[in-house]
Predict the 3D structure of the following.
Amino acid sequence: MAFYDSVFKALGLSDWCGAEASSAPMSMADLLAQSSGEATKEEFFPFPSLDNLNESCSGIIQSRDVTKGIEEGFLAAKPTLKAILDPITQPLSWLLDGALWTFAATPWFIMVPILVAIAWFASRSVGVTIFVAFSIFLLGLVDHYDVAMQTLSIIFVCTGISVMLGVPIGIAMSKSDRLQRSLVPVLDLLQTLPTFVYLIPLIFLFSVTESKLYGIAIILYAIVPVVRLTDLGIRLVDQDVIEAADAFGMTSRQKLLGVQLPLALPNIMAGINQTIMMSLAMVVIASLVSAPGLGVNVLRGIRNLELGVGIVAGIGIVLLAVILDRVSKAALSRVDMTRVKH
Amino acid sequence: MATEPKVRLRGLYKIFGARHKEVLHHVKEGMGKEDLLEHHKHVLGLQDINVDMQAGEITVVMGLSGSGKSTLIRHLNRLIEPTAGEILVDGIDVMALSEPDLREVRQTKMSMVFQKFALLPHRTVVQNAAMSLKTRGFSEAEQQSEAMKWLARVGLQGYENRYPAQLSGGMQQRVGIARALTANTDIMLMDEAFSALDPLIRTDMQNLLLELQDELQKTIIFITHDLDEALKLADHLVILKDGAVIQQGEPQGILMNPCDPYIEDFVSDINRARVLRVKSVMEPLSGSKFAGDVDVGDNLESLIARSEGDTSLHYRVMSGGTAVGELHMRDLVKALVPRLSSSEDVSPPKS
Ligand SMILES: Nc1ncnc2c1ncn2[C@@H]1O[C@H](COP(=O)(O)OP(=O)(O)O)[C@@H](O)[C@H]1O
Ligand SMILES: [Mg+2]
């Protein structure tokens, strides 16, 4: 005798509910109660959840039907989605695999100087460059050079693609208030969704062996700041200067390339800095879905309770984070400086 | 004037707001700025503007803040679209231009100088000056030499490779002027170009502008809220109030015969002796005994100094070597009293 029997009777819905309530499959709660050997305890006033209502009326679905429905719906849509998304995203797999291969195949005595040189040209700061060289040396010393390079190559590819897609999206947003209004909620969603939640639909859609799986997860997460700050940066450009550009007859292309983008550059660079940091955060989590790199060692530390392995990898991640942050911040402040060379 | 005006504004109206075309008829039927805002939530920017701007002259548009000066000047190059009316530049209807043609007009016919300078902060002084030529696709060498020439002309030699932020306000505005001159356009639009500058630097800049104008004879449309500046620069003065022209004409004439209390207010504060010139006070030649010769362009202050305050003297007025009239010191003193609507009418002198 379930609590809501009388309700359905009073509403005259008994017929619609169908014959025997007990003929419905057991709900999860019943099953648990049974297996733990306790009798189902009747609550005084149970919440009118689907499972509770189902006990009184088999015409009402159970909660597991909902999850099952979603799953089936998703599976039904999967072939179409896959047919569209697979070819579009395939280059991402190639890029990631290519980058991983390149970073692995280049001998360290060539790779390290290249990285140090990049740090120098981006930051033009002796301190930062020495710090980068020292950090890579440390990582190599504890035999984490290879995994660190894997992480780094994934970040390079994902940040690059985020910038290539994010800057044009940000430009388009700054030009159209309507586009901005419709994209801002999407960006909010991408940024607030817990990172694990991204992975669920992606795992269904792509096989775990494909690199684009984690590539997409990282890009979706990391693209947000560069889009936002490109939009903001362009909108914040001094209207007087824009007016001057118009008054002297610039085309919108000349205005964009010669005025708006250069003046928005500090903001865009700040966005890129955040994008890099978020790629790094995500690439660690993405080791759950077979992304190689330092994250794998962290995961091993957790799974096998190998404290040392986990901590060393963790420190490696911190080092990478500091390197990437320092270099991109130094580049940013250099851009800011050229603005007002006092 | 016999010659065709360089710029003509004909029946220009501007109303700010989404339904500006629909509320236009209210304004045409005489609704004022306040009523329009209260009843229709639209801002009246300009109403029925008819101004002719002659080639080679400085036309000054003066009015208090919010009177629509910036709105007016931005119509000439269509940075603002009018609600109704005609804008003719060199006889071309600016409103009929396609986008590329409008860009071309902005590049080759009009240049603009802004109150807040509006220089490109990431470009050097010389790159800023060359902005118009770069936009038009001139070669790097041409850009450089033209920009250098005009920078030198406005006194910025040696600053070419600085950035705007490294310069003082006065020097930044010199870059602004060099940028407009480098564009080599007949028409220059100057929106409160000197209002952000200190008084001394401002005087320098006004003198620079007059000097350049002597040399180049551009058609300049100059916006200001300062009557002294307006009188110093104007060949033709247009006075704007709440978006409407309330008086326009030769500045001396406006000074002697203000037609509106609003203008009288403006006019009553200034040093008339310094602004008024002999030609506004002189009378036709009739006498023969003169205390000396004066030039039509002399201001009254210099004459008072010369006569040492003796109001019984007569002077002969000369213009380029020929006598064109005579001046009685008595009339001069009368002209120094501002005419207020409350006071008795001082009969206007014929000029
Ligand atoms: N984009 C706009 N939207 C609404 N009102 C405007 C806009 N631009 C100017 N105005 C109004 O038009 C009037 C004239 O402005 P403006 O031409 O800037 O005056 P001025 O340059 O003489 O100080 C002001 O009342 C101002 O509030
Ligand atoms: Mg203004």
Chain B has a mean pLDDT of 90. The pocket of adenosine-5'-diphosphate (ligand 1) is lined by residues B 16, 43, 45, 63, 65-71 (CB under 6 Å). Residues 97 and 149 of chain B are 32 Å apart (CA to CA).
